[in-house]
Amino acid sequence: MGNLSHTLLEKGEEVVFAFEEAIGFMFGTTVLDKDGYPSIQLVLVVYVSDITFGYDSTRPPHYKPILPVDLGSQMIMFYLDSNCEFTLRTSGTEPKIKYYVYMFSPPGVHADESSLKDTLSRTVDDIITEFIKPDYYNLIYRSI
Fold it and tell me: Coiled-coil intervals in this record (predicted)?
């Protein structure tokens, strides 16, 4: 499904929806995979804190962050609805973008370790694809 959609996109076709008889479906082309719809949910940003310019979306009406502001830091923190947080920042010594991803299970909720690892892996893939966009910006991606 994903490979065929990719081929169609390369030919200039528009892919709106793809499915299989079993269970999988693909809505849109953000994630070219029949199970792509859950990973789209993973990047739902609940709130943002920009440490560089001093913005925290959870603190209206002035939106001033609790954390200290540093104009030289170039750092943004995102908090997702999947109990995941990630930070994007530039390196102070090298021409690179760094990211840090944190994930937790809510207190009192027992989570399956393999499920958490799978969710974390998909979230990292989505962060790289949707936020950093190495292909779009012609960046060199070094996998972990």
Answer: none
95-110: pLDDT as tens digits: 888 888 888 887 888 8
Locate 137 and state its tokens: 């910006």
Non-local (6+) Cβ contacts of 101 within 8 A are: 84, 85, 86, 120, 123, 124, 127
Count of CB atoms situated within 10 Å of the CB of 11: 7
Q: Same domain for 27 and 44?
A: no
| DSSP, residue by residue, 13-25 | ----EEE-SSS-E
Contact present, 101 and 127 (Cβ < 8 Å): yes
| Predicted model pTM | 0.57
Q: Are residues 58 and 11 in the same domain?
A: no
